Amino acid sequence: MSRVMPLSNIDAAWLHMDDPTNLMMVTGILTFENRVDFDSLKAILEHRLLAFDRFRMRVVEPKVPFMPTFWEKDPLFDINSHLHLVGLPEPAGQKELQDMVSDLLSTPLDPSKPLWQIHVVDNYKEGGALIIRLHHSIADGMALIFVLLSLTDMTPDAPIPDGEPVYKQRESQRPPLLSGALKAALKKGKSNVKKLRRASKRLLAESLEVLVNPAHALELTFDGSDHVYAAGRLVLRGNDPQTIFKGDLGVAKRAAWSRPLPLKDIKAIKKVTGATVNDILTSAMTGGLRRYMLARGEEVSGVNFRAAIPINMRSPEEMGTLGNKFGLLFLDLPVGVADPLERLVVVHERMDALKHSKEGAVGLVVLNGMGMTPVEIQRNLVGMFAAKITAVMTNVPGPPIPLYLAGNKIEDIMFWVPQSGRVALGISILSYANKVYLGVVTDEGIVPDPETIIEGFYQEYDDLMELVALTEG
User: Fold this and answer.
1) CA-based diameter of the chain, in Å?
2) Residue 334 sits in the same domain as residue 463
3) Region 143-161: what's the mean pLDDT?
4) How far is Cα 128 from Cα 115, in angstroms, rounded to an integer?
5) Separation between Cα atoms, residue 240 and residue 236, nearest integer Å
6) Long-range pairs for 300-304 at CB < 8 Å and ≥24 separation?
């Protein structure tokens, strides 16, 4: 691979969406039952993460107008500039980790270096944690799950790489997906290989039932008049109503996340109601937003506001490539509906309609077009679309089986999606090892207590579980 490569139009769009009040970073955490061995982690990153060339490349803006922004291999690259060993103040629990994550959400990455950073927390509870930050221009959520899989193993006794790392991977080729896990599986025999294949298939096809049909979506991209009609609807939509979740943004952000929810319990609700896993979580989250508004004296009667939902547009053959390839759907959240079951029915109907919509493909085209426009025009377009939504809501199917990093079992995984433009609310749903996690990130000046939204989500979720108990009873 050459030392220089232009950013794709969509990657460039995400790069130029950066604003001090909304940094375009994907931020995630991994927690472990034991402390992370720093040297072992570093060795794995050198051999596996840096096999992806983009993690050794910095962004260079052109000096000549209308020339593309490009990736350039960092001549001074040093992995130590991207790894930081840190400790939490006592009692070093979720609140303290949450505070550190919130601070980092508000802290930009160094633009003179490759746009990623990992903080190794050596005293989270009885174990440790990683806080991982990278710029959205590097990759989207689905791509990053495959990066994670390439770093991990299926067993705690997998060997740690040693020797001088050799960067043979080319960005134009598929990276060594599941490299660590696959090697471990081969050592354990064919049964584990089959298990890994089943796990990979579930990751793509089941998990959180992601709204994705790449072949259909790409076909819609070229569907003439319907395509134009969907694009027109997207542009001509009115702005979202002014609620407690909108306002002037500041720099400080707040992050919160849920306890792990058993996927089997959510599937029990699915069995009773006929809704999907994603419908159930979205409906309960909508109820949590409703409860937050009511507690602050806000009017909720008849209120609907939109969440922009990224949808994967990669074909199976493209899985494992970096960069961004997703469309956007716009879901009207029925905040005004009080009854949990009635709300779930409404969410299910609206989600079902979106699955057959042409807007996801249109969203991909719009993002691609934005990356081709001058930065000032792009900012105006981002502002226009941001006014039409109140939240960004994303769901990503993570590994369905427990994984190990540097010999240490990953207990929990969570991430937070960036909000472009003037959007103050981000909601993330992630599955891992038959558990589901919910994350909320907010602008601190507008919503200073996102953990309260999570508490409302728990109450709505419990109401749906009571419905299951009544049915089974």
Assistant:
1) 71
2) yes
3) 87
4) 24
5) 12
6) 300/335, 300/336, 301/336, 302/336, 303/241, 303/243, 303/335, 303/336, 304/241, 304/332, 304/333, 304/334, 304/335, 304/336
Amino acid at 405: L
Query: What is the domain-level CATH number for residue 267?
Result: 3.30.559.30
CB 445 within 8 A of CB 412: no
Q: What is the DSSP letter of 420?
A: -
What does the alpha-carbon distance between residue 186 and residue 177 come to, in Å, rounded to a whole number?
14
Instruction: Give per-residue pLDDT as tens, 375-388.
Output: 655 565 655 666 78
Number of neighbouring beta carbons within 10 Å of residue 342:
12
219 and 184, same domain (yes or no):
no
Q: Is residue 98 part of a domain?
A: yes
The 10s digit of each residue's pLDDT in 59-93 is 998 876 667 888 999 999 999 999 999 999 999 99
Structure tokens given for 272: 């009773």
What does the alpha-carbon distance between residue 308 and residue 355 come to, in Å, rounded to a whole number?
14
Please list, residue by residue across 60-92, b when 16 or more beta carbons sit within 10 angstroms of its beta carbon and e when fewer do.
eeeeeeeeebbbebbeeeebeebbeeeebeeeb
**In whole angstroms, what is the distance from residue 369 CA to residue 355 CA?**
23
pLDDT classification of 167: cutoffs 50, 70, 90? low
* Shared domain check, 37 and 9: yes
Q: What does pTM read for this prediction?
A: 0.84
Q: Supply the Cα-derived Rg of the chain in whole angstroms.
A: 22
- Judge whether 16 and 113 are in contact, CB under 8 Å: no
Number of residues that this document lists for the chain:
473
For 125, the 3-state DSSP assignment is: coil
- If asked whether residues 156 and 134 sit together in one domain, one would say yes
Number of domains in the chain: 2
The Cα–Cα gap between 380 and 378 comes to 5
For residues 178 and 95, membership in a common domain is answered with yes
Which tokens hold the place of 71? Answer: 């990736």
Question: Which residues have CB under 8 Å from 440's CB, separation 6+?
Answer: 255, 256, 257, 425, 426, 427, 428, 450, 451, 453, 454
| Residue among 29, 79, 22, 38 at smallest CA distance from 55 | 79
* Exposed e or buried b per residue across 14-40, where buried means at least 16 C-beta atoms within 10 angstroms of its C-beta: bbbbbbebbbbbbbbbbbbeebbbeee
Q: Which domain holds residue 285?
A: 214-394+421-472
Residue with tokens 């953990």: 451
Residue 401 lies in a domain: no
Place of tokens 């980790």: 97
